[in-house]
Amino acid sequence: MDKIREKKGYICDMDGVIYHGNRILPGVVEFVNWLYEKDKKFLFLTNNSGKTPRQLHEKLAWMGLQVDESHFYTSAQATADFIARQMPGAHVFVIGEPGLYNALYERGITLTDTNPDYVVVGEATSYNYDNICRAVHHVFRGARLIATNPDLTGPTEQGIVPACRALVKPIEMVTGQEAYYIGKPNPLMMRTGLNMLGVHSNEAAIIGDRMDTDMVAGIESGLDTVLVLSGVTSREEVDRFPYRPRVILGGVGEIPG
Q1: What are the coiled-coil residue ranges (predicted)?
Q2: Global pTM?
Q3: d(CA 131, CA 39)
């Protein structure tokens, strides 16, 4: 734990680490205060594409945490950055929420239901059969299929719910085309996060609740890994994976010590 506390930078997941739905988790206030008191560099790097950085800032403020928008980077932003580099001015058909729509719009990407270059799928409360049919139609006509993240499930106040991978799976199965997944553990997210922090990988740690995304992302990017059991992973499930986190904690409140 001393080595973890000595790190200059922290990349931290949000769902299952900072909050469940609209309920802040125990020890989070103390953890965030510690980050500021120790002048640590930190970034909330979330696979959830539903909210903009401003919305995340406001959500935490409502919970009693004041965190500047510059400390957030979402899979929606990573997806928009990727498409803007691959095909500037691209046209996309989107299944998602405001965070994804806004990120794409800000990068000059046109949202359309007519001959799109890409079909982009993120978390979506408006997900329905009609959207699936439209997406399948566009992929059959040559649109490339992209998913904002590979999370199959996500934690909420009501329990575990389907996440992005569960929503894109029917499109993959019908079209026979596998989506390209942008979010963690894709190195695109991690490289951007480290660049935003301005620290080397060996000077940073990643804190998350998922073995299949957060911990893999950290291991493959050279960061120390901290698994918290406040989200979707239990201690018993850790042994099912061929890799292990450096540290396992009940929650982020144990980090300040």
Answers
A1: none
A2: 0.92
A3: 45
pLDDT in tens, the chain (257 residues): 999 999 999 999 999 999 988 899 999 999 999 999 999 999 999 999 999 999 999 999 999 999 999 999 999 999 999 999 999 999 999 999 999 999 999 999 999 999 999 999 999 988 999 999 999 999 999 999 999 999 998 877 788 889 999 999 999 999 999 999 999 999 999 999 999 999 999 999 999 999 999 999 999 999 999 999 999 899 999 999 999 999 999 999 999 97
CA pair distance 257, 253, nearest whole angstrom: 8
Does residue 111 sit in helix, strand or coil? strand
Domain boundaries, the chain: 2-47+184-254, 78-181
Residue with tokens 């997406």: 135
User: CB atoms < 10 A from the CB of 213, how many?
Assistant: 23
Radius of gyration of the chain (CA): 18
Handedness of CA 98, 24, 70, 255 (dihedral sign): negative
Among the listed residues 195, 201, 192, the one whose alpha carbon sits nearest the alpha carbon of residue 81 = 192
* CATH no., domain 78-181: 3.40.50.1000
